[in-house]
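Dear all,

This email documents one entry for the complex benchmark we are building for the journal club exercise. For each entry we list the sequence lines for every component of the assembly. Then comes the predicted three-dimensional structure of the complex as a token string, followed by one or two observations. Please use this as the template for your own entries, and keep the labels exactly as they appear.
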Amino acid sequence: MIGQKERKYIFLEAAMVVMIVYLLTLFATNVLDQQRMISLDEQLNEQKIRHEAFLSSSSFFEALGLLDCEASKQIILDEFEVIDDWSKDLNIYGINMLNRNLFNHEIRKKEYALIQSENLNKALTRNSICEEDSLFYILYFIDGDIFGFNPTHLILQQFQRTNQDQVLLYTFDINFYDDPTVNFLMEKYNVTGHGEVYFGNLSSKTSSISPGKLKTELSRLKND
Amino acid sequence: MINQLVTIIVFFGVYIISFWVLTMFNIERKLPKLSKYPSITILIPAYNEEEGIRRTIESCLKLDYPGVLELLVVDDASKDNTCGIVKEYGQVKLLSLKKNRGKAAAVNKGLKQIKTEYFSIVDADSVVSSKSLKKAMPLFYRKDKEKVGAVISKLKPENEDRNLVERTQVIEYMIVGLVRNLLANLRLLHITPGVLSIYKTDLVKKLGYFDENNLTEDYEIGVRIRKSGHLVDFSDESLVFTRTPNTWRQLFKQRIRWARGFFQTHFKHKDIYFNKKHGLFGLYEFPLNMFSIIVLLTAVSIFAYNIFRGVYEFLFKLINTPSLISWFEWQGLYAALLATDSQLLIPIIFTVFVTLFFVYFVKTFYSSDFFKKNKTRKFLALFLYIFIYSYIYVYIILKGLFMELTGKKYDWGTKK
């Protein structure tokens, strides 16, 4: 049998092994989280440049008194697609990170809200000029601290995906009520809680709706 | 909450496995040499064992043992020709009971007649190797004078290659043997299986004989032996072959009985938990048994929940949002790494540790006779044991606990 002294050493050695393993894991996780931040920043910088370019061209067109409805529609839809892809990474990385409450991640979620607002603003401006070819927009307000399966969001995404040349879907986190844009939208549309859906062009809102009923509502909108 | 729980569980799991792996590298056994071997009685409890008892008796008669060796068969009111077969062997004593009262009661009746210094119980369907007793007995006479109350043997299934059930049990018995060896070296062993476990006769009588109300009286007496301050040791060289269930139904029935006996024993001896009086046995090993059960149930619950949730979400997407299903798209290793859940890293480490443990195990036993033939089927059994058996065991544990808590009477059934 193993002696009493040897047994004590084994207890200590095992504890050291576990500590080393955990420290290495924490280090690796930290490195992984940093890489996620870098990846998100790179995508965001690209989007900012794209936005600057749009602003520049818009100013140019405004100066000449022109707006190309078709071209501007395509720019808005392309930009929306980029923002949408970026938000997917943001969500995945946000869930996968060890510390979801990292300050930097909150900043990025606010930046996401901002660039969505910029895209929405462009869409609304264009809609006011190009009335015959309006883009349809949906605003979905969620509580960003609630994780997990969201059937409503999936159905909205499905609707946007199958009508991607006409429909824009914006998701805003109601926890960012201190952000001026989000605050403005929440007050304008009287948003009080998680899961409220605002159908922009129809000026109608719904909440606590089952996925089945939402699908029916969206089909009706499509036909209309 | 679940993630914190997983972290704590994995922490303990990694610690325990590290501890055992380090122990493995520190085992040294030097058996003392005995100038004189003590007297011992082999006690064979039997109920309707006409099929196997002849082989058992003959293997016991072939034991190479220099000391006084007696054989006693206790017939628990068999309805077949068990007694007739025993009577053919003149050197074997027979005690026939008039009423069937179960194995523990039969053993106790026989024990009252035993006068030798030691006794060993051998099931009537087992076969002992000729050198088993000679190898095991020296462990009672330790140089460091620690008191040993029982010595257990290494069990091997006799039927091992007819189907997946049997092959899986061979793997299981190999691992159990390894674990018992480790526990014995750490002075933490407290189980005495009912096949060729050798006991000090006076000690068992003093402790009150076997518990006739316990479904696993062999486990329960082992706990009482440890509780009395005596050790239970393990003889790696004392080999006994035992029949194991060869259908899933029989296996489940046996294991549910073991699970019930486990809970019965732990409820009965709950005073051992975290009791310093019993040293590491009370502070660590005995509570660890129950903790392991809780860990297994928790881990399987979390796993099952994630599986069901994943299936539900997939079906929902398939029906309602098919365009959102992204089938496998390889975007490179870097992207895959960034998309990996950091919280999975901790269970991944645990899996790596467990895998290392099993690689060591596989490497150690790969050269054994078991893996020489039908390798594919044997490795399928190994895969089943590592990845699936634990989840089957959850059902067994839960059913055993439920039956024990509801006080359902155990049906021993009839021997086939």
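Observations: The first strand of chain A starts at residue 136 and ends at 142. The CA atoms of residues 66 and 175 of chain A lie 39 Å apart.
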